[in-house]
Amino acid sequence: MKKIYLLTFAALLAFGCNKIETPETADDGAMRFNVEYPATKATETSFEAGDRIGVYITAYDGNTPLPLQLGGNYKNNNPVTFDGTSWTADPVIYWGEGKYDVYAYYPFMNPQSVDELQFSVALDQRTAETADALSAYEASDFLYAVKRGVTSADGEVRLPFKHKMSKLTVNITKGEDFEGDIPEDMTVYIHNTVTDCLIDLSTGDIVKDPYASAQTVTARKIDAGTHTAIIVPQMLVNKKPLVEIIFRNVSYMVESKFNFKSGMHHVLNITLNNNPDKVNIEIGGEIENWN
């Protein structure tokens, strides 16, 4: 009886070891996504749990890609959600035969057009995040990715997201005759920019809405001397009021021509003096795929 017991125990142990060393993994045929962001989101903390991207997928007719449409694609605006570790499509997207083009964007919305998707940046980008909504600043940051010719053999779809809006950071420093510290209650406005745009989801190309009027954007405060805003790409060809800084009931106005480029982070360095008419401005470099 003892001998039988030992043989049985050894057999079970061997079976258990084999299961640990060679686990069975089933391929369910689901399409998985590897979302990459060489640039971070507007939050500057990369994607967070609960974030959703929208995905359109088009098939091929032989070796010819079918055009992206609002409806009738292989998948139409399928939400894909981040849980803090991985991305999950709901409903699940399954691989089929042949090749696919995958178009993705953030933040998730309900487009009424894929050729001229209407998008706007917030006028007051100081509005904080709530349990039900992104902060106004983050909601203004449109990200886009496209991957063409993928197949089930790829295993997963790599989506390298990029910024499509323009970002402006205003750095404020004191001049020699400026008295006191840079005040904490300073407000920075970006004037004379169009805040509405049209985006082609098949290419990621973006243009300002030709029928929209110029507006004023209130920048988000990072610290007393640093304010930043997301701006629709556009060129200001005429010199006009661009940045206004208000504190102590005094307005400091900066006039300038400017070219807000898609995907670029622009920096304005402004030196304040006690006389509002003596404001020095320096245009810094351009940063692509900003942090």
Structure description:
- This protein is mainly β and 291 residues long.
- It is 8% helix and 47% strand.
- Strands 2, 3, 4, 5, 6, 8 and 10 form a 7-stranded antiparallel β-sheet that branches.
- The longest helix is centred in the N-terminal third of the chain and has 20 residues, at 2-21.
- It is elongated, with a radius of gyration of 26 Å.
- Mean pLDDT is 86; it is low at 1-26.
Overall geometry comes to: elongated
What structural class do the secondary elements suggest? mainly beta
Query: In percent, how helical is the residue content?
Result: under 10%
Q: Total number of β-strand segments? A: 21
Low-pLDDT stretches are 1-26
How far the N terminus sits from the C terminus, by CA atoms, comes to 71 Å
Q: Can you summarize the main beta sheet?
A: 7 strands, antiparallel
Helices, by number, come to 2
The percent range for strand residues is over 45%
Radius of gyration: 26 Å
Q: State the order of secondary-structure elements, H for helix, E for strand.
A: HEEEEEEEHEEEEEEEEEEEEEE
* Average pLDDT level: 86
In short:
The protein is 8% helix and 47% strand. It has 291 residues and is mostly beta strands.
